[in-house]
Automatic annotation (TrEMBL):
<dbReference type="InterPro" id="IPR010982">
    <property type="entry name" value="Lambda_DNA-bd_dom_sf"/>
</dbReference>
<feature type="compositionally biased region" description="Low complexity">
    <location>
        <begin position="207"/>
        <end position="219"/>
    </location>
</feature>
<feature type="region of interest" description="Disordered">
    <location>
        <begin position="186"/>
        <end position="219"/>
    </location>
</feature>
<feature type="region of interest" description="Disordered">
    <location>
        <begin position="235"/>
        <end position="260"/>
    </location>
</feature>
<dbReference type="InterPro" id="IPR001387">
    <property type="entry name" value="Cro/C1-type_HTH"/>
</dbReference>
<protein>
    <submittedName>
        <fullName>XRE family transcriptional regulator</fullName>
    </submittedName>
</protein>
<dbReference type="GO" id="GO:0003677">
    <property type="term" value="F:DNA binding"/>
</dbReference>
<feature type="domain" description="HTH cro/C1-type">
    <location>
        <begin position="25"/>
        <end position="70"/>
    </location>
</feature>
Amino acid sequence: MNPNVDTQALAQAVTQRRATLGIDTQRELAEKADLSPRMVGEIENARRDSYRDSTLFKIDRALNWKLGSSQGVLNGLPPYPLEDHVDTDEAVEEGFDDEDIEGVSAGTNDYDISVSEDRLTFTIYIDRRVGDRDDFTVTALLDVAEEAFEFVSDRIEQSRSQPSELAGMSDKERLEWAHKIIEKFAPLQRRDTEPTPTSAPTEQEKSAAASAATPDPAVAYDDVAQAKLAEVLQSDYTPAASPHAQLDPHNGVGEENQDE
């Protein structure tokens, strides 16, 4: 058996979920997942030590798990059951975007060491912690990202007895990668990026605020997220200017402020 994955945990999780959904037989699950009955039997009896990406995705859809749950179970995470009324296609779109899916599919079929597996595990970890909560601030989300890095680099690395692909990434690469994934959860809350008023605004301040364009919340998020991730990763990486930033109208076009 492959020591890198827990196929017995997947077998138990699939069998239990099948019973919960009222899918009485392995054949019924096979039809629902568009898999052979033999394959479903091998999954539920842990007869294989690895599975193809496409097989795991089909199991996720058939059991109404968020996409990536089966791989998460193999890596020691609990499955993420979706609400029974959620349409599976919508759940797939909700779980991971096309680039995430393509990244996983580009990995090795037997789930050998690959950055795609680390990326999927990292994303699943964050998703499990965040879930559908609406009380997460940006800082809290980035704290979860720090925990996710520790999970991937420590637990997964130990189970493989080989360094994680994350260990070979530069601080800059890790920062950009994590920032991109965390951005998926940015709309949840940005309360800690909003200034807390200490006194009632003056009429002049009200007028200025009314005439100003509505700021893109991604601007504040970019600043906080990248700074926090750089701190978390103990990186000296200085992120590029936010794409949401606007030119200072008092400066010449394309010119930068310089200290005199």
